[in-house]
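Could you help me review a protein record that somebody else here produced? What it holds is a sequence and that sequence's fold in token form. I have pasted the whole thing underneath without changing anything:
=====
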Amino acid sequence: MRNVKISCRHVCKIFGPTPEHIAETIKPETAVSEILENTGHVVAVRDVTFDVYEGEIFCVMGLSGSGKSTLVRCLSRLIEPTRGEIVINGEDVVAMNKEQLRDLRRHKMSMVFQRFGLFSHRRVIDNIAYGLEVQGIGRAERLQKAQEILELVGLQGWAQHYPHELSGGMQQRVGLARALAVDPEILLCDEPFSALDPLIRRDMQNELIHLQKNLQKTMVFITHDFLEALKLGDRIAIMKDGEVVQIGTPEEIVAHPVNDYVYEFTKDVPRVKVLTAGSVMRPIRQKEDLIGKAVAMDTTLEQLIPLTADSDGAIPVMDAEQNLVGIVNRRRVMMALATVEEEEA
């Protein structure tokens, strides 16, 4: 069983003069536009429940106004939730006093924003060390730590420069480094790459994936870009009008969108790059003609095609612990391809 790092239960945020009253009286089927028109209240987050597991990147995506940024700010109480339960490491964040909340933000949780928020009068190294300074760590120690993180995010040689001397992508690396310098258990990322040019954005996504392989942080990553969510997320929560309409792995969401809203995000996704051996395999039988080298469950359909093209034999599929969990063969791959072609027709 995976450890639950963050647990949200029935989280709700309503903006307006009497949010508690509105939360008690609105019916689940009432549209947010109707609530706004009739009461003047904005329902930003509505009865949201999910868990985030230790060491995973949990992407929350949706269109502008879907409530995703409000939700991530509720997790650290930068925005106070109207109601609901938010539990981190077994502690109720909603019930924390100011001192407990300050300790959570300083030592266990960091946030990376779309706007870099760097101090223009401080050099790069001092920007990175700022969180350690707030913690009361001595200058020599915090600069040493900041230098290590600086190198980790690929900014060697830029320690003594000022933010205005850096490109947008480099500034965002400084923002990410500042968040990592305090060695948080949890990273909350609110569309950190959306202001960057496409090529720089892709580089930053790859950098985050590389860092995650080494650091294994628990991340809640907000984005409006479905392809970014597919690339980064171990699981994805899709929001609409303040509600979570589907949670699943990238392949679960692409293969089985729950409604037309989710399908609109998935319809142009190249499924051969998303669907995996784990989704097309079948159980192994007693007498099986196994061929070739085993593949991992996350091997994509695109990668499986050449492996199965010239044989009817079965390729073993292994899980992360190297247990044999099933097989794939040419027929299974062709059936999956036929389904893809039918859906895209």
Q: What stands out?
A: The longest strand covers residues 4-15.
